[in-house]
Each structure stands twice: as structure tokens, then as C-alpha cells.
Amino acid sequence: MLSRVAERVYWTARYLERVENTARLLSVFNSLLLDLPRGVDLNWYNLVIITGSEEDFNKRYEVRSERNVVKYIISDAKNSSSVINTMRWIKENVRTSRDVVPIETWELINELYIFVRQNLQSGINKSTRHEFLDQLVVSCQQIVGLMSGIMIRDAGWYFLRLGHNIERADMVTRFLDVGAAVIMNDDDSPNREQIVWGNVLSSASAGQAYLKTTGSLVNGPEVVEFLIENPLFPRSVRFCLSGVKECIDRLPRNRKLTLSVKEVLAHSTRAFDYTQLGQEFRDHLNEIQMRISGLHNEVSENWFAVE
Amino acid sequence: MSIDWNEYEPDAFYDELIRQPGKPRPPARKLARYLSKLSAQELVERRDAAEVTIQQMGISFTVYSEGENIDRSWPFDIIPRVIDYKQWQSTEQGLKQRLKALNMFINDLYHEQNIIKDGIVPAHLIKDSKNFRKECVGIDPPHKVWAHICGTDLVRDKDGKFYVLEDNLRVPSGVSYMLENRAITKRVLPELFESVHILPNNDYPAELLKMLSSLSPRKIKQPQIVVLTPGVFNSAYFEHAFLAQQIGAELVEGSDLVVRDDNVVYMKTISGLERVDVIYRRIDDLFLDPEVFNKESVLGVPGLMRSWKEGNVALANAPGAGVADDKVVYALVPKMIEYYLDEIPILPNVETYLCEDPEQRAYVLANLDKLVVKPANESGGYGILVGPHSSKKMRDTFAELINGNPRNYIAQPTLSLSTAPTLIDGVRPQPRHLDLRPFILQGKSMYCTTGGLTRVAMKQGSLVVNSSQGGGSKDTWIVDMEKH
Questions:
Q1: Taking CA atoms, which of A2, A43, B108, B277 is between 20 and 30 Å from B410?
Q2: pTM (2 decimals)?
């Protein structure tokens, strides 16, 4: 398989996962807004910080309002990682790797792109936002589901899965970071723990699985442990990184990478005291993100930058 | 109301299907009868079915408009163009004969240049040629073949004979549409494939693969063959992807390939570097290798020429093959056939006046209002004077151009291109002008497509068949009458 095509397939998966998770992240904020008592400062700007785009945002927006943040994330043509731009990248990537990705996927991706382009405003407006975000999540899942149902399990498939899992692992840590940030910001409203961590759980569609597995009420330490360490839930950090490892094991020339991924997996799931979800915990999340990003660099170097 | 062939007026031109109102030509009889039996509604349904098929199959070509690339659906007319197998057989022989002679000519030019020494072709032809590559002198490509893939444009004049209009020896395109046109017609008019003996044309991909394999420097069972595309913004990207898929080759861009110090071409794969044997390149000579040609080119591969010269990789078509893609060379092809093959040319050229010859130039200058004047080295219909449609001012400009650089101009009489019934609006067929581009392959052996790509000028009276300028296309049937 050509390195360039492998790279495009990998990024297609990452971008698809990113669109879905961005929609999920915005949904969390949206429902927190409804659940938390009035007067609590939610600080939408956290979303900009979490996606690491403060500098770019501040260049073009003076007010860090909800509307500006949502606009920036969904429809800003100058934000290279806005939903609309990410969709454009997906389309361009698939267009040039159509021999690997099933034809039917190409049609669905076209449809989704048209939907996003035509409904940007409803993503920004409060009254229609929920519906718009829901549709994004469903469409992304539909595309991934189609791929998983009809793609031959060759290198192309494993690069796709690799992209999905790396992006998903990274995004889960960002969800957790949102939770920690909101809690640190607001320390006296009643039930805040349940509300915040309950929303983080549902952003990963993990509420049901959490209750079944832990049998306990929603509380910070257990939610965090579940979303990082649970070996069976498909959106936990451990599960995603194990997925990354499986893909790497199936690809050629993988010796160095198999060692690296083991290290990242061990570090991310090492014993950590989740009872205090303060700055130290956020630093821990940050460290995991750095290591995932390091893994990505190694993947690129090993398979995409062949000289 | 269904089609009534008595109402169809082929005018003064040769019509491919209908000899005179109500009288179809013999190979088209069953087709004409079948079409006239369809009700207006059925006809519309078939036409719509073709459009849906085109969209489903994603057959498109790219046009540039306002700085954006638009993928446009392929324009297609459901009434096929029919040619008698007997006439086709001799046409095919003529096409092969031409390409054989052209390849001997190119090889001669890059070696002894006997044809010049023997005074058949003037020496300045090469000196002034834009497409002569001095880098290619003395190279011996496999089988001494330079133009492996040739698309020759044929037109039919009033007399019903095929004439060669030009030979495209650089990177001719269109063959994917020929194949897709047939695939669409099979879905839209399936009944006719049972009753009419239509020769299949879908062996092209296998023949292309066979030809490309025959060029491989490594004599191994499965040589590594790639299709080199300038990328997704090229107007023929659809075809590049289509052909790569059909022959099971990787579709690569310049940046996917690398030439190492051993002068071997490799492609960058997830398993590391893999050796490449044959490159079917769809990039012009000048962009192939920034080490040798255009230094700015990012489409090509640095070192490609080194590797090719050493015989470590085959390029199809070979660099420098375009030297024969020249209107002056074209005019001399009949002489080449006699010179190299000692044969009589089977296919006639369109009568061509070379402006470098003083006598012919005088005739051209005196008859500018009747002739078509073309520059020798351009393709794609640029810088042409169509005499009967020109103003006095344009003719004066061309007279100056010709006198300034006579070698660079040729002139031809205006042709009466043949027509075929075409559905324009509604269901009444109208005559529209068309041409034909068969594709000829030469490697170890030769092959010619059964028929070719028929392009149609969709506007009344127009002779412009280019898809970028509103031209359409038809399926081309070679019908064997004796097997009826």
C-alpha cells in the first residue's frame, strides 16, 4: 500500500472521529448549561482552551461568548479545525483514496458534507443546536459502521482503525479535562459533581455501561477511572489504546511501534489517585495527550514519511 | 410521438446512420427500426436511465471555473454511432500501419536520422521542433518503440471515407469514456445486444496491461506497474484512477516515487521502498523530471530520466515521443510509410499545405478565406484560423504570422464532418457533427481498439467536439453484418 494513501485513510478516520467528538463535546456543554443552576459561570472559552486554539481564537474574536465559541468551532472558515473545514478535509482525502475506501462511503460523506454546509446556522442557534449535533454524531457513526461492515481487512482497514482509536483516546482525555475544568471553576453549587460527571459520561454515551459496571452513583473518581481504565468499554482510554496496539501489530515494519504503544498504554493506565481531581489530575491528562501525540508522530515517521 | 426517420434530414453531409430520409444504412437498420418502435415516453425513460447510470457510476470530468474545480457528469447521447466491421478492418490496419511508421520515424530521429539524410524530411524540422528532446538522443527503449499509446483522430468526409486528422502521441486521453459509454449502453439498450452483432471493446484494459508488461526491464512474472497522475486537479483524473483500477496498478503521484543513487525508481509504501518497473505516465515531458526539464515542477520525479536512460524503468509514452505530434510531421506520414515500411498508406491524410514550402505558402495566403490554418505544435485547438468564419482583420494577422514563421504553420481545406442522429431536446433526433478517436497500442505487439471514442458537437452546425467546450459523446458500434 502506498504511504500517501495510507496517510490519507488514517487522517480520514481521525477527522471523522474528530467531527463526531466535537459534536459530543459541544453537546456536553449544551446540557450542562441547562442542568447547572443559573449564575454558575460555565465559561465556554474552556472549549477553545481544550482544543488548543486560544491564540487563533483571540486573533479574531474580542468577546469570549458562547455564540463566538460555538461559531468558531462549527462554522469558522478560517479555523482550520472547525467542523466545516474538517469535513472538507475528509472529502478531499476520500476523493484521492477512493480505491481503498468503499464507494458507498464516498456517497455518505458527500451527503454529510452537504448537510453540514447547509445547516451551519442551526448548529449555532441555541434552539436547533441539539438536533444538529445529534445528526452529526449519527451520520459519523453511520459512515464508520458502513466501513466496518464492508471493508476488506487489509492494511487500509488497519490504518483506518488506527486513526479512529488514536483520535478517540485523545478526545476522551479532553472530555475528562472539560469535567475537571468546570468543577474547579465552580465549587459551591449543589449536586455539581453528579451533574458535571454525569454529562461527561453521557458525552461518551457511557452512562448505561458505567452504572452496570460499577453499580454506584455518579461520582468523579469512579467516572474518571471508568473512562480511563475500563478494558471493555469502547470509548475508554485503555480500550482505544489497546485497539491502537492491535492495529500496529497487524501492520508491516512495526517493531519499534509495538514497543512504543505498549509504553503509552502502560503509562496512561498506571496507578493514579483519582480522589483528587484538581490540577495534578489535569497535568496527568495533559501528559497522556502528549504521549498519544508522540505515538502519532512515530506512526507518521514510520509509515507515511518513507524516504 | 416516436421517431420517424422520414423526418430526419441528414443535409449535405455524410450521415453515419441515415443515408437519406427514411433510409438507414445497412449496419444501422436494426437500430433504427428498434428506436422508431419506442414510444416517446420510453425514449425519455431510456435517456433518463442513462443519466442516472452516469451519476451512479460517478463518470465525470473536471472543468475549471472561477478558480474552482467542478466535477461534471459525462455528457452522453444514447443513440450509438454504427460502423460496418468490413470498413473497420481496413481502418484498423491503416491505424496500426501509421503508428508502426511513426515509431520507426521517432527512433530514427533519435539515432541515425536517415530519413533526413535521404532528403525525405527537412533537417530544420527537428532543429525547430518544440518537442524534440536532445536528452533522448541515442536511447534505445524496449522494442524500439517510443509512442506506446496513440489516440488518432479520424473524421469522415462527404465521400464517406475516413481521414486522419491528427495523431496524439503525448498523453492521449478518452479511452475510459469509450469503455464507460459501452457500459451505459448495455444498461440502456440491452435488447439490441441480443439481435445485433456488436463487437465487444472491453479487452482494452487487458491489452494495455499486456503492452505495459512487455516493456518491463525486469523479466519477472508480475512487474510493478504504476499510473503516474499529476493529481486530483487534472481534468483527466477520473480516467487515471479508472485505468489504474482496471489494470490493477497503483495510482501514484510524483511525490510517491523516488530515484535512489542506484538509478532505480522506487515507490514509497508502508512496507518501505518497492521497485517500480513500468510507469504509464499521464504527465507531459517537461514536468517529468525537474533535474532535466522544468526545474520548478513538483509533479515529476527527480532522477526519472537517469533511471530511464539506463533502462532501469520503462516510461510509456517514452520522453521525446511528442516530436512526431506535430502538424508538419503529420503531413509527412504517408511518405514515412513508404520510406520505412515500403507499403502504400492505407488511411489518407486530410490534404495539408506546408507553409514552409514557397509554392504551397503562396496558395495558402491567396486562399485564407477557404482554409483552416493551424500552428504546427499546439494541441487542443489553440491559435487556429477557420477561414470561412474569419474576418479580414484576422486573416491579415494570420498572413503576418505565417510570413514571420512559415515552418510553424500548416493549412487544410475546411472539412465536411459526418453527422449522426442525436437527441437534443425532446425525442426528435437531429444531425450533429462527430469525430472518432481510436486508441492504438504498440509494445512487443500491436493492438487497436474496436472502434473508439465518438465525440459529438452538441450545437447545431458546430464542429467543436471537446467535452470542455460543450461536446458530448456516443457509444461506437462496430457491427459484423455477416454474422447476422
A1: B108
A2: 0.83
How close does chain A come to B250, measured CA to CA in Å?
A: 8
d(Cα B169, Cα B437) in Å, to the nearest integer? Answer: 12
What is the C-alpha separation between B361 and B398, in angstroms, rounded? 12
Report the residue of A247, A306, A307 to disrupt the B interface, i.e. the one with the largest count of B CBs within 10 Å. Answer: A306
Contact B244 A99 (CB under 8 A): yes
For residue A283, the model assigns a pLDDT of 94
Which of B270, B274, B276 is best to mutate for the A interface (most A CBs within 10 A)? B270
Q: Which long-range contacts (CB under 8 A, 24 or more apart) does A31-39 make?
A: A31/A199, A31/A202, A32/A182, A32/A195, A32/A196, A32/A199, A35/A195, A35/A199, A36/A186, A36/A189, A36/A192, A36/A195, A36/A196, A37/A189, A37/A190
Distance CA A64, CA A181 (A): 16
Which of B250, B258, B271 comes nearest A252 by C-beta? B271
Asked if pLDDT for residue B62 goes beyond 70, the answer is no
Q: Which residues of B touch A98 (CB under 8 A)?
A: 241
User: In the predicted model, is pLDDT for residue A307 greater than 90?
Assistant: no
Q: Which of B207, B155, B160 is nearest to B179 (CA)?
A: B207
Residue of A1, A3, A91 to mutate when probing chain B, most B C-beta within 10 A: A3
CA distances (Å), B13 to each of A289, B17, B314, in order? 74, 12, 45
Confidence at B58, pLDDT banded by 50, 70, 90: low
Does the pLDDT at position B149 exceed 80? yes
Contacts of A167 (CB under 8 A, 6+ apart): A13, A14, A17, A18, A21
Instruction: Measure CB to CB from residue B270 to each of A95, A106, A303 and give the nearest one.
Output: A303
Residue with more model confidence, A1 or B425: A1
| % pLDDT > 70, chain B | 94
Predicted pLDDT at B328: 85
Q: How far apart are CA B169 and CA B131, in angstroms?
A: 11
| Residues B114 and B121 sit within 8 Å (Cβ to Cβ) | no
Using the beta-carbon criterion (under 8 Å), do A2 and B241 form an inter-chain contact? no
Residues from chain B contacting residue A1 (CB–CB below 8 Å): 269-271
- Dihedral sign, CA of A96, A101, A105, A107? positive
User: Sheet holding B353-354: strands in order across?
Assistant: B353-354, B409-413, B371-375, B385-386
Whether B426 has a pLDDT exceeding 70, the answer reads: yes
Q: What is the pLDDT of residue A22?
A: 94
Are A3 and B256 an interchain contact pair (Cβ–Cβ within 8 Å)?
yes
Q: A6, B253: Cβ pair inside 8 Å?
A: no
C-alpha distances (whole Å) from B12 to each of A232, B3, B165, B418, B460 are 79, 21, 21, 9, 14
pLDDT of residue B193: 93
Quote the pLDDT of residue B65. 56
Q: What is the pLDDT of residue B256?
A: 94
Tell me the pLDDT tens digit for each residue of B355-398. Answer: 988 999 999 999 999 999 988 776 555 678 888 888 999 999 99
Q: Are A181 and A190 in contact (CB under 8 A)?
A: no
Residue B407 confidence (pLDDT): 84
Mean pLDDT of chain B: 90
- Give the nearest chain B residue to A304 (CA atoms): B270
The β-bridge partners of B429 are B423
Neighbours of B102 (CB within 10 A): 29
